[in-house]
Design goal:
The protein is 35% helix and 18% strand. It has 331 residues and is of the alpha/beta class. It has two domains: 161 residues, Rossmann fold (3-Layer(aba) Sandwich), CATH 3.40.50; 150 residues, Glycogen Phosphorylase B (Rossmann fold). InterPro entries: Glyco_trans_1.
Length: 331
């Protein structure tokens, strides 16, 4: 199964036979429809609906018209800032799933969130937040990025390890590149790091920070590179890092691991630390991050990240857990 983290859950549901077709719906704003851009997967139909305005959760007469004409989906997954209550009411017969794909457990108002049949979270504390607002709505800790990892997109390849550390993250402040840079400044200058930035506005700032510290860091600037190239770049590194704190459970956690490299994560990361085990990596506080890098590089042969992900977090495992909730509702 190949696709971005937004695509992989619907692809898993399709491949698992829970539905016979799957679509990805998005909104567009303004007077001009978006240019149609095919996605990575030929198995997903993409539809873009004109939003009524720019305020979230998004309402769309266009989307409501489509639902009225063709009927609601059997399963409706809503991510992030969500859709208006009118859309959910139009899909009253659908099994409705929500995931915030961010640190806040719920990014939609009560009148929207009350309609969901299942809410996916990234951590235990997020589940508790959901239960405090909606005691009767079931939750499952299943962040859609790392839980539906693609073992085909991310895999080991036999190439030289040119970098000690890689960080695949947006060039944005919440990704906390500064923690990596300050850690590298405490280590021998012979260590090489690579930062791959698919998007973000801070690339010039990051380069300036690296120059000021005199550390050895290369950059891949926005708009980034395709998955195949990201996989190759990760295979050139010995370890991957996740430095953020106020970050949702990043898909890159298990994507690193599937390439065979262990992960050093910030111990203050608010969602996703369940993927860090003694065999997949370790955690370190920001002020001890350099010690984490040094320790992991010294014992790379003690980690088995790909094997652990294949045994626990690829899409068949997650789909089995998800199917039990959907089946329970249908029953």
């Amino acid at each position: 199964m190949i696709g971005g983290y937004i695509e992989r859950l619907p692809l898993a549901i399709l491949k698992g036979g829970l539905v016979d077709c799957a679509e990805v719906w998005t909104h567009w704003h303004g007077p001009t429809p978006p240019t149609e851009q095919p996605g990575l997967s030929p198995f997903l139909i993409r539809r873009a609906f004109q939003a009524n305005g720019s305020e979230a959760p998004f309402s769309s007469n266009d989307m409501l018209g489509h639902i009225a004409a063709f009927g609601p989906p059997s399963i409706l997954c809503v991510w992030g800032l969500g859709v208006s209550e009118e859309v959910l009411l139009a899909c009253c017969g659908s099994f409705k799933i929500y995931n915030s794909i961010d640190v806040p457990a719920l990014r939609v108002p009560f009148e929207v969130s009350r309609h969901f049949d299942l809410i996916l979270t990234g951590s235990q504390w997020q589940s508790e937040v959901v239960r405090s607002r909606h005691p009767t709505i079931p939750t499952i800790i299943m962040p859609i990025g790392p839980e539906f990892a693609s073992e085909l997109s991310f895999r080991p390849i036999d190439i030289p390890k040119n970098y000690d550390v890689i960080y695949v993250a947006a060039a944005q402040a919440y990704k906390r590149h500064d923690i990596l840079f300050e850690a590298l400044a405490k280590l021998p200058r012979s260590l090489r790091a690579l930062c791959v930035c698919g998007y973000g506005e801070m690339i010039d700032t990051l380069r300036s920070e690296v120059g000021a510290l005199g550390i050895n860091v290369d950059f891949i600037d926005p708009p980034g590179v395709p998955f195949e190239e990201v996989n190759r770049l990760m295979n050139q590194a010995r370890i991957g890092v996740v430095c953020g704190i106020d970050d949702g459970a990043p898909a890159i956690l298990t994507e690193y691991m599937l390439t065979g490299i262990p992960v050093l994560a910030n111990s203050q990361l608010r969602c996703g630390l369940q993927f860090i085990t003694p065999e997949t990596g370790r955690v370190a506080s920001p002020d001890k991050f350099h010690e984490g890098i040094r320790d992991m590089l010294a014992r790379l042969d003690t980690f088995k990240p790909r094997q652990v992900v294949l045994a626990n977090w690829t899409w068949p495992h997650s789909l089995r857990k998800l199917s039990s909730f959907i089946g329970r509702s249908a029953g």
